[in-house]
Each structure stands twice: as structure tokens, then as C-alpha cells.
Amino acid sequence: DTSGSMAGDENMMANCFGAAMVQLASTQGRKVYILGFNGRVTLLHKYEKKKAYIMTSYGSLGSHEWGVDKVRWVETPAANALHSVMSMQAGGGTCFGTAMTAALSLLSEAKDADLVMLSDAADRMPRRIVDQCNAMKARLGMRTSALFISHYRTKDLETQHSKWADTITGVSPDPATMLEGLTDMAAAAIK
Asked: pLDDT at residue 100 above 50?
């Protein structure tokens, strides 16, 4: 989530977590996508077999037109790709539907994948996305995690996201507890 509400410590934690996920997946020999979003997809990287690829374009597609076949990739040095993940800036609105449409398209044939949404939870998941996500979980064995960086955590938030997420983990964006929180989040997301 690169929306404006993620500015500050939340954005820094999200960027660090993205880089940590790339490292963890690489160590495990797994492919990983990092997808930045606000009201649209702002960044998309793919890491596999010790190579990094960045999305060069997908046109001006809306969420309903997203398709993995429309993404154009270019190989780039892994250090450059990780630098852009670590440099993502927060701004704009939040649209979970756009991000999840893209993520589910990318994972549409991936067996036993992990889908991790990291956000401050400043949006609701559209019902059609919840249904699509749950169908893919059943068909592909996909695991889903909602990781929230937020000063607040409500029962409504947990109830809403438990409709699609297998695990929900929250951490305060307080810098004093950031490292411990990131470690807990990584452990919850990839087993």
C-alpha cells in the first residue's frame, strides 16, 4: 500500500518488509512479485531464479481490464529493483480492488502461493474480489495474509478482512517496536 495514509513510518516499514520478502523468497527458491498500489498499480516487480524484472508498462488499464498478459517486463539488476522497492513513496488514495485484481491475475495459475497484503487497512475489500480470492485458495492451495501497520485495530477490521485472509497480523508503526513487528509479520506471512 503506497497510499497517502501510509506516509512516514508506515511507508518505511512497508518498504523494508517488501525487501525482506524478496530476500526470503529468493532464499527459498520461490518467485515473488512486489506490487505497490494506491488507487492504481504504482510499482510491479518480479523476482525469480536470482533475476529481477520490472514492469515497464501495462497501458492505462483499469482494474477490470488487468491481465498478466498485458504486463511488459524488462530484466534489471536486482540491486536496482530492490532500491526502487525501498524508495517507494506514499501518496494518493487507496483501492484494494485494483491491487487484488492485479495480484490475483499474477497468481492465477500459481499452486501453493502466498498472497500477502500489507496496508494500514484504509479501504474495504470488494465482495467480488473476496469471492475470487476464496475460489483461488480452494483451487490452487493459495494462502493469504493481511498484514496491517496501524495505530488502531478494530473488530470490524478483522471481521471484514477475515472473509478473505487466512491470517491477520497487526503491528504498530512505532519505530521503537518496528523491527520486532516486522519479524513477527514475516513469520506469519510465509511458513
From this structure: yes
Q: What is the greatest pairwise CA distance in the chain?
A: 43
Please, are residues 120 and 150 in contact by the beta-carbon 8 Å criterion? Answer: yes
CA distances from 128 to 52, 71, 136, 166, 167 (A): 32, 23, 12, 17, 20
User: Any residues with CB less than 8 A from the CB of 61 and at least 6 apart, and which?
Assistant: 67, 70
Give how far the C-alpha of residue 100 lies from the chain's centroid of Cα atoms, to the nearest Å: 8
SS3 letters across 11-32:
HHHHHHHHHHHHHHHHHCCCCE
Per-residue pLDDT band at 58 (split at 50, 70, 90):
low
Q: What is the pTM of this model?
A: 0.82
pLDDT tens-digit series, residues 12-50 = 888 888 888 888 888 888 888 888 888 888 888 888 888
d(CA 113, CA 107): 7
Alpha helical stretches, state H, the chain: 9-27, 78-86, 96-106, 127-140, 155-161, 178-189
